[in-house]
């Protein structure tokens, strides 16, 4: 008769290539059940966006067939429990805060932040999105929520909590929900910093695996406030291939590495990398130059997370209140799936490394 110990021993030969330990030591194998030749168990990943899901599943199947029974029937149930960094202070139900930044305005930072949120939520993660762009909050437009006003609820101890607005399974708060759309520069200095802090501290976020923050472009007070007030899992930097954008991006990268800020840079995303006409889907035209983002990532020794093509549909879908990655079969959704997977993977690696320190 096959025993649970035999199955676990077999699975202890399977190593998670990112976390560099075997699945049993990592406590990722649960609920082993054996009935004759049928072996079932749960594989608990560190993120539902794990790009190595299929690879790990195949490795588990091979290990059990090799070490236990060659003709075993194997049923693997894949779940996930997102890990978090050790220091989570007051925001104890929010596991990982991800900053989306850019050195320059208009490079597609809000488009990337919104589509990453949609992609992670589609994978099954609990996701929140804060639009902290004091200059031009775009989440209300991108999610079809212009004019929306979040309501509030009282806690038992009399505190008032803002209720994020939920759309496409994502909990959203934007500075734009609290400002008059015709007011030219609504948020300045300390008022902006306080408003941002409230979006984190005084909102009823519930449990979140990932809270994505769409930062204002450049480097400024808001970046410092957020970086110093909350535990940040990491920052991603969005750039276009042009040199000007790249020069500003370098400043952004350097800021996250300053002492006193010191936030892990999860990587660089290159947006508007190339244009592919719908009628010639195999052709890629690198209008703004090629490989700029990749070279920048190499130079600063941070991961390159991927390229997003220039596509006509993005602006239309952004304006119509439905981020483009809601369309499952679009090539751009595939770019976002790959990038979101790499970000979630990078965070899991960092979290396991800090837990081991
Ligand atoms: N890959 C893309 N293909 C085509 N259009 C894009 C792409 N990415 C973004 N855009 C468009 O470029 C414009 C700027 O994008 P977005 O608002 O996301 O940039 P941003 O960096 O957040 O700007 P801001 O300076 O306002 O913070 C929008 O109209 C958006 O729809």
UniProtKB/TrEMBL annotation:
GO terms for molecular function: 4 iron, 4 sulfur cluster binding; ATP binding; ATP hydrolysis activity; ATP-dependent FeS chaperone activity; metal ion binding. This is Iron-sulfur cluster carrier protein. It comes from the Bacteria. Binds and transfers iron-sulfur (Fe-S) clusters to target apoproteins. Can hydrolyze ATP. InterPro entries: FSCA_dom_sf (IPR034904), MIP18-like (IPR002744), Mrp-like_CS (IPR000808), Mrp/NBP35_ATP-bd (IPR019591), NUBPL-like (IPR044304), P-loop_NTPase (IPR027417), YlxH/NBP35 (IPR033756). SUPFAM superfamilies: Fe-S cluster assembly (FSCA) domain-like, P-loop containing nucleoside triphosphate hydrolases. Pfam families: FeS_assembly_P (PF01883), ParA (PF10609). In the N-terminal section; belongs to the MIP18 family. In the C-terminal section; belongs to the Mrp/NBP35 ATP-binding proteins family. Homodimer. Residues 4-67 form the MIP18 family-like domain.
């Amino acid at each position: 008769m096959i025993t649970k110990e035999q199955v676990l021993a077999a699975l202890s030969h399977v190593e998670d290539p990112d976390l560099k330990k075997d699945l049993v030591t990592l406590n990722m194998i649960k609920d082993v059940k054996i009935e004759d030749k049928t072996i079932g168990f749960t594989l608990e990943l560190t993120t539902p966006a794990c790009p190595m899901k299929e690879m790990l599943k195949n490795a588990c199947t091979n290990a059990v067939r090799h070490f236990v029974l060659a003709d075993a029937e194997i049923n693997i149930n894949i779940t996930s429990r997102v890990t978090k960094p050790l220091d989570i202070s007051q925001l104890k139900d929010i596991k990982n805060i991800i900053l989306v930044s850019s050195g320059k305005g208009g490079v597609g930072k809000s488009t990337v932040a919104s589509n990453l949120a949609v992609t992670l939520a589609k994978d099954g993660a609990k996701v929140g999105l804060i639009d902290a762009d004091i200059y031009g909050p775009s989440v209300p437009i991108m999610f079809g929520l212009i004019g929306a006003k979040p309501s509030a609820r009282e806690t038992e101890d009399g505190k008032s909590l803002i209720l994020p607005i939920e759309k496409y399974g994502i909990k959203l708060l934007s500075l734009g929900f609290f400002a008059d759309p015709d007011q030219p520069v609504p948020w300045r200095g300390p008022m902006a910093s306080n408003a941002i802090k409230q979006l984190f501290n005084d909102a009823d976020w519930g449990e979140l695996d990932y809270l994505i923050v769409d930062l204002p472009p450049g480097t400024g007070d808001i970046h410092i406030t957020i970086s110093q007030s909350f535990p940040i899992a990491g920052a991603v930097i969005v750039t276009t291939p042009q040199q000007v954008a790249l020069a500003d991006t370098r400043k952004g990268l350097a800021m996250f590495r300053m002492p006193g800020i010191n936030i892990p840079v999860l990587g660089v995303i290159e947006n508007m990398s190339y244009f592919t006409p719908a009628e010639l889907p195999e052709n890629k035209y690198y209008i703004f130059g090629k490989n700029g983002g990749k070279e920048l990532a190499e130079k600063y020794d941070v991961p390159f997370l991927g390229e997003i093509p220039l596509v006509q549909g993005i602006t239309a879908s952004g304006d119509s209140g439905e981020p483009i990655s809601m369309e499952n079969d679009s090539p751009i959704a595939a770019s976002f799936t790959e990038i979101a997977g790499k970000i979630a993977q990078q965070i899991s690696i960092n979290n396991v490394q800090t837990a081991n320190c």
